[in-house]
Structure to design on (104 residues):
């Protein structure tokens, strides 16, 4: 836990000040342009992979980037996709897989 608390402190001391204007804009609302659906594998970092700063991607991550068929169940994945497409009007939608996926 100490590692994460130190990381938050470093973010507050170094990253946030240099990007203050961006974070202030994002605090007012979001308008991402792309829905990213990908694996929740800890080795895959969507924003880093796509070279996208905060606010550009609306991210849905599941083990093996598995998305249940529409109407099969009510849950987080369906809610995330519906909010992205209907609420935020995000397009395009990108599904990203990766090698050595343990879920697949």
């Amino acid at each position: 836990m100490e590692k994460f608390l130190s990381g938050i402190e470093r973010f507050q001391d170094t990253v946030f000040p240099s990007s203050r204007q961006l974070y202030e804009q994002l605090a007012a609302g979001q308008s991402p342009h792309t829905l990213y659906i990908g694996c929740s594998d800890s080795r895959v970092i969507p924003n880093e992979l796509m070279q996208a700063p905060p606010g550009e991607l609306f991210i849905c991550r599941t083990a093996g980037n598995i998305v249940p068929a529409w109407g099969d169940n009510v849950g987080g994945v369906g809610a995330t996709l519906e909010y992205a497409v209907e609420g935020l009007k995000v397009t395009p939608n990108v599904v990203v897989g990766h090698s050595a996926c343990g879920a697949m």
Remarks:
- The radius of gyration is 16 Å.
